[in-house]
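Q: Two folds, back to back.
A: First:
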Amino acid sequence: MPKYYVTTSIPYVNAEPHVGFGMELLYGDVLARRARQLGADVIFSTGTDEHGGKIAEMAAQEKIQPKEFSDKISQRFQDLSKLLMISNNRFIRTTDEGHEQRAQLIWKALEKDIYKGKYVGWYCTGDEAFFTEKEVKANNGICPNHNRPYDKIEEENYFFSLSKYTAAINKAIVTGEFEILPVTRRNEILGVLKEGLEDISISRPKEKISWGIPVPGDNKQVMYVWFEALMNYITVLGYPEFEDFKNYWPADVQVIGKDILRFHAAIWPAMLMSLDLPLPKQLYVHGFITIEGKKMSKSLGNVLHPNDIIEHYGLDAFRYFFLRRIPSYEDGDFSWDRLDEAYNNELANELGNVVQRTIAMITQYQGGKIGNLPEAGHDIAQYEEALRLCKFDRAMDEIWEHVRGLNQYIDEEKPWQIAKQNEPEHLREVLAYQVSSLLSIASLLEPFMPDTSAKIRAIFDGGVVNSPKTSLFPKHDEKPKPKVIASKDENAAG
């Protein structure tokens, strides 16, 4: 049985989850479900990133320990996975004992490329990130994400020899060994590589940041949170000795947001090269979501939790919108009007309607008995290629071509006229094809809308119509009012 490994990024627990990371989970879920459909043995991992000064600072504000604070927020990300029916079978936390131990093993394995030096520069605790003089000047000394000055720091840290891997990473990307999608993100990181990578600081003094994994052999230093967090993709597999690591690495696809491209397309490949490990086969980089044309912001009252949508429209409508109506390769916008339009016109009028039409006609003309099913004959080559390239919106377009094609088939064949003409055999053939086509559509839908897929299959199970009491997508006349989620930081992960 072939092995398949897919990951999402692990969001920082400085904020509550919202639709941005929910969308990323959907992308990983589609890939995992499709791989299982094709017979693969799948590991699908997500999780939470929980160390660093920001977490210690926020925990202190609530007068609780960092671990307790992390437990609370991490649980909400786990709840989000359940809410969205995400099929991950691994959830890693960087505070897990196994991760912390294996992170130290990785550090030791990287020591040939680690040296101690003095860091003089800029840092933002809110981002848990170092910034260059050029970046700080461009923002007039104020972090745009947190609206506060960057911290000027001068400290003795450990450094990783990132610069020595510039040429090797460039070659891996150019040759396709390390495929980055879309091409705009590929070109972006190639531009960074052309300028040359610089060695990076990978630790912080424990006296300044106590909430972190200690550097092996130096109890005065802790690992830089971003450097340590990247290790999760192999620690979750039990690096270096577990069979899962040996069988599943390299990852088939790693799904991330565009804001963390450099970490995953430069630092992470260099770490793997230093460990003499193969690079991920594919890095898929998605865009951001705006709300009614505006950045999600607590102050604007437009930060959405997926449940705000699911409570009114249902889970599969949520999955449908973010997988089809949000561009897979670009930023996308959510609005209640766009969601309502998609729900009523595409889910209710097109998919829901063709299912109900088929149910009604088989019930009326054949006493609910379906009969032998022919092959639907759907061409899915473009669907498969779209999924290979992580073009989820395009793959769904292909499904909807079949949905609309089936509605057109019914309109052209006019089963009601065939019934009037008393042609029972012809009628059975037409209706049987409708069912066959719907079952084929249900199979294609399963990675995207698993509940809807299961309902369609259940309706026609056993060769008879098992008519649902309600339509798959009952129409809604009123749109819900958006809710604001309680967020500690409006720049939530994802």
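A: Second:
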Amino acid sequence: MAKYLSKFKLHVNDEVIKNTVNRAKERNIVIPTFAQQKNPALIPEKIKQQVKPLGLWDVNPRNLFRISWKNDVKTGLWGDVNYVELPSSLTGVKARIIGLVGKYFPTGAHKVGAAFSCLVPRLVSGEFDPTKQKAVWPSTGNYCRGGAYDCALLDSPAIAILPQDMSPERFAWLKEIGTSEIFATPGCESNVKEIYDKCWELIKERGNNIVIFNQFAEIGNPIWHYHLTGNAALEVFEKVKGPRSRMAAWVSATGSAGTIGAGDRIKHAHPHARIIASEALQCPTLLNCGFGGHRIEGIGDKHVPWIHNTRNTDTVVAVDDENCMRLFRVFNTPEGQAMLKNAGVKAEVIEKLALMGISSISNVLSAVKAAKFYEMDENDILFTCLTDSAEMYQSRLGELEQQHGKICNGRALADFERFMLGEGSQNMMELNYHDRKRLHNFKYYTWVEQQGKTVEELNELWDPEFWEDAFSEEVIKHWDEMITAFNEKTGVLKNL
């Protein structure tokens, strides 16, 4: 019998479920299964017809079914996985770099999927009561947006906690969606402890009136990425591979350690593929046990997340935030785009550059560095995640102009050659067994000393069987069975 499987089975509270079922009936809510998010062909035709006329970001519970990598924005339905292949003319390396596109999720960022996976299992099991409790979403940006959106669709009040230095667009969006409360904690992305401190403060004040959905510790976060993001990358690989192609790597900022969980799925299918963890050079936590602040919004650091399977991580790479900011300006200004065209980048590629936010550019640069470090060629395919788009960072363009003056062709070319084509393989570390164990041990200081975890629980995370059980088909099927049973209790789907 699987050693840890019971840890991921849901604890049913029938009294709370009754409240949630009534809420779902009142609001006409049907919850999608993970299998339907992975393969939208499984979605009932009645649901498809109701989804089709909706806007991608509309606050309508049917948009829960659009929490998928396969949204087709032209038809309003679903198709193949949304991805972009970045050519050598842009990246400067022979290896093929492919980014899964997060913009076409509701909210414009893939974190809405991780938030769903943290919230819904508790919702359908009765571990969370949306009629009496508020959901708290601690985040450095997109996760709390995803959580607030999921809560809006499910008519559940949400509390967002994020650092005060995040982009103004994030705060404006949270207010617009109707987030119940928004707390701006001191600092920037690196100030995660301040977010945790606020969570503890709210727990002391409000007790059982709130439930904390901490993405850095919620196993639902990497489970969603293992089954949804990892399989999306595998689908694209089968579509684009040539006769000699190699699945070379999954490249991801560590952040909450959710998205990097897709690498576990890829490595399960392609054991020689590498999982490459990325972070900001200004806060090189994994690379050098370092600390500091940076401008790569949304990747939170200065600690090792509880849910990071460090035993399966092969390489750490640190990216200078200045490189990301300069390239963001090149990609999103007429002057920069004109320069890229003159440099030989095709128009259809330039049109897609707005699909990359700041952390997306960081992921791409990490892939470029990895390709150079491992001397990869055109047979190597690296996958990464374009977490969100430029949409949430337009205010940063004005700030960059104030800092560096107006961009011109010459400046754009210099920035492109220096920060993209000139990116090197410095600030990288290949991990051996003891390096991985060191990063695992680093969790102690945050999670055992500060956040109430035990040493016994920490030791479990070093056991490969823990992750095998967490990512097993049995767990995700169990959750889907609970979702299906919940939908049957509401009767909404049956009565459509």
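Q: And?
A: Residues 83-106+225-430 form a domain with the Rossmann fold fold (CATH 3.40.50.1100).
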